[in-house]
Specification:
331 residues, 11 helices, 12 strands, globular
């Protein structure tokens, strides 16, 4: 197939492109605006006869329609995705996550192209720390931040275009990703690169907030399964049963990197910080036979640490600016 991958120079998008090259014969066109979170170096070394790159904005209707008209399926990763940034300036999140998704939906509607929409578990809000429940595709939406609100809105647009216009689309909501090519503003790579640089890691509040972690390779394999065999109109939740609180994750990073487990600092908690995310991925596993490769979080984290140690040239250019941004906010 010919696939259009939006946001394919970003973190999980570039991991998906690498996965496609390694495990399929599909040809890929990457459409990416190359904001601060996009990096062409994340696509370095991929075969030019199978991966093409177009720099552009998913809100550009003429460009989007031109690319969609030449493709068999669209996998939509492009998004503004950092909660802290959405609290500082929500407008780019509305433009990209809402208007951009609408623009893509209109193009795939016109050309009857298969569409898969990448979303997040944050659309469901959060769970209490002692609540045994997990998110399912029937959980009501209850987003907490401008970021998660715009992702919830984009999900609802996809559902409406399926029902109202017959667009052939699926949605996946995934838990927190980690792995190679993740921008150093994000929790796990920020702590890893801080340790490499000799900076003490930073932990919001008491660090008791829980996230359900999944390696980006596992997310990629799940998305491919949904694209190939998922039922049109359905939502699939992707998770690897990797619930860990942030304090545990920081201490494990320090331990794996040969540092004392308590060598980190507490900083003021993020406004509206969700308590706990937890994914029930049983529908995906039962219907499509998917299983994660990195079921052992510690093994996946160790592999991620090794990647950041070996690829300082990839993350170093954005590290100083990221830390300056947090320093202004006391974080």
């Amino acid at each position: 197939m010919k696939l259009l991958v939006t946001g394919g120079a970003g973190f999980i998008g570039s991991n998906f492109v690498h996965h496609l090259v390694a495990h399929t014969d599909h040809r890929v066109t990457v459409l990416d605006k190359l904001t601060y979170a996009g990096n062409l170096a994340s696509l370095a070394g991929l075969p030019e006869d199978r991966v093409a790159f177009v720099r552009g904005d998913i809100t550009d209707a003429a460009l989007v329609e031109s690319l969609v008209s030449q493709t068999d399926a669209v996998v939509h990763y492009a998004a503004e995705s950092h909660n802290d940034n959405s609290l500082h300036d929500p407008r780019p999140f509305l433009d990209t996550n809402i208007i951009g998704t609408y623009t893509l939906l209109e193009a795939v509607r016109k050309h009857d192209v298969r569409f898969h929409h990448i979303s997040t578990d944050e659309v469901y809000g959060d769970l209490e720390l002692d609540d045994p429940a997990k998110f399912t595709d029937a959980t009501p939406y209850n987003p907490s931040s401008p970021y998660s609100s715009t992702k919830a809105g984009s999900d609802l647009l996809v559902r409406a275009w399926v029902r109202s216009f017959g667009v052939r689309a699926t949605i996946s909501n995934c838990s927190n990703n980690y792995g190679p090519y993740q921008h150093v503003e994000k929790f796990i790579p920020r702590q890893i690169t801080n340790v490499i640089r000799g900076i003490r890691p930073k932990l919001y509040g008491a660090g008791l907030n829980v996230r359900d972690w999944i390696h980006a390779d596992d997310h990629s394999s799940a998305v491919l399964r949904v694209l190939e065999d998922g039922r049109i109109g359905e939502t699939y939740l992707i998770g690897a049963e990797g619930e860990k609180d942030n304090k545990t994750v920081v201490e494990l990073i320090l331990t794996l990197m040969g540092q004392p487990a308590d060598a980190y600092d507490h900083v003021t908690d993020r406004a509206g910080h969700d308590l706990r995310y937890a994914i029930d991925s049983s529908k995906l596993r039962a219907e499509l036979g998917w299983e994660p490769q990195y079921a052992d979080f510690e093994a996946g984290l160790a592999a991620t640490i090794d990647w950041y140690r070996a690829n300082e040239s990839w993350w170093a250019p954005s590290k100083d600016a990221t830390e300056a941004f947090y320093a202004e906010r006391g974080q």
